[in-house]
């Protein structure tokens, strides 16, 4: 059996791992897009199309969860000849669908722009639109998704089984364990997916996986622990008090539409219901967030006990007085200058594209505005620059603007487990029985730090795979 790392190798995004079995069967675990756009492949790599391997030879995709850096390349896999099924949990299937259609909508705008720029040219062939799938490709891909229940051992090939275990992190997210018989011997390979946190807003705790022979494990927070702890409603309440009550200002929260926004809305609902605070107007500015919130409501029986009890008491997880969903761009732009104190939740979380850029542009110079960062942001994104605390001026939407707004941050809504959570997950495995542990989905410094911690904990054979590196298992 061979395992090749085609993505998330010494970097955070683009999870994609190919297992090739002795009988020729191939399983692709995750098929994600890069956060920064998919890397430019060399001419040699392009011989296969959108992937550096032959998609037509892949037999099955096993998807850990819906986030686009794990699912975003699936339509391209079908375009390049893949004819198999995608196995995942039911919530992952539904969330992936709305995410892929959203990506297709963005792709359509890019394609239209490229075609317009080449309108006067009768002959052009550009790689600018390579990999930009549209609605039709998403529809074709979704027809092949097969939902699998948690902790149900599912036979995906002769002498091959897969089991999904709750991972927290996102609705439907899973750790994956494959059991395969080769040469008369059973081998177990675990894939952590993205590891969630214990006692996290809305979601169930990550569940331990059984002992495996090989473990592929994420390491996003391998270098640090979360700073904030306690009740998210109290933390958010204090920020709202300072931003919208004490100074009658505006609170802008850049947040990813799937996962983070639902945590914020649920926490606001709790805050207004439990604490008796008069609801301040909340504008959710993302059609994708509205669609994914409906999916969270659909699968509320998969959420944690606290969320289910809150629903039983209030008959609502996310809907509360003064909550408004914005649909059109016109509505979005009008809200940026709303006269009364308000909260605007908008994507993207990194302030790199999306409607939130307009809200930041209109409010970054306003000393009565507060920008609350609630998640990870790349250093080169607007969000990353704001988090650094060193920026006095920013270029946003081709404008140079002064940073007069208050910048605050909290990691209480981060869906990723921190260093201690990662170590607890790894320690489920007995060092003497684990043949090899692969660290993925983290920057190199985080991986090196976490590798040292693992070595000190008795895990001697820890690998940091490079992109395209293959291992015999």
TrEMBL record:
SMART domains: Beta-Casp, Lactamase_B
Keywords annotated in UniProt: Hydrolase
One Pfam family named in its UniProt record: RMMBL
Domain Metallo-beta-lactamase: residue ranges: 13-226
Region forming the signal peptide: none
Chain ranges of the Beta-Casp domain: 261-386
InterPro entries in the cross-refs: Beta_Casp, MBL, Metallo-B-lactamas, RibonucZ/Hydroxyglut_hydro, RMMBL
A GO MF term: hydrolase activity
Gene3D superfamilies from the UniProt entry: 3.40.50.10890, Ribonuclease Z/Hydroxyacylglutathione hydrolase-like
The organism's place on the tree of life at top rank: Bacteria
Protein name: RNA-metabolising metallo-beta-lactamase
